[in-house]
Amino acid sequence: xxxxxxxxxxxxxxxxxxxxxxxxxxxxxxxxxxxxxxxxxxxxxxxxxxxxxxxxxxxxxxxxxxxxxxxxxxxxxxxxxxxxxxxxxxxxxxxxxxxxxxxxxxxxxxxxxxxxxxxxxxxxxxxx
Length: 128
Hints:
Blueprint: H1 3-20, H2 28-40, H3 43-51, H4 54-80, H5 86-99, H6 103-106, H7 109-126
């Protein structure tokens, strides 16, 4: 598949999953749909890594590293500032929803972080 199409598809899934991450407590078929979309989010970058262009591999690897690092910092701040003002918690939740896409829409925070880590490791192995 064309590299530009994969990037466009990944960007579209990013926007979709980030927006759907704000649905409070989805249940039933909606829950299954969100999980399926969250898993599909990782398919375009995996295909981009498989193509193996150096620039693309480096970009996917760096995005995965950035997402994992900012997610770890934001989660830590959320726990540390739990007794802080509600506004700060809302801002950190918004940042977490966008940076960690599709963590909130998938319903399984561990799954999303694991798949980001898989992209990171695959990027290191594929890179030269």
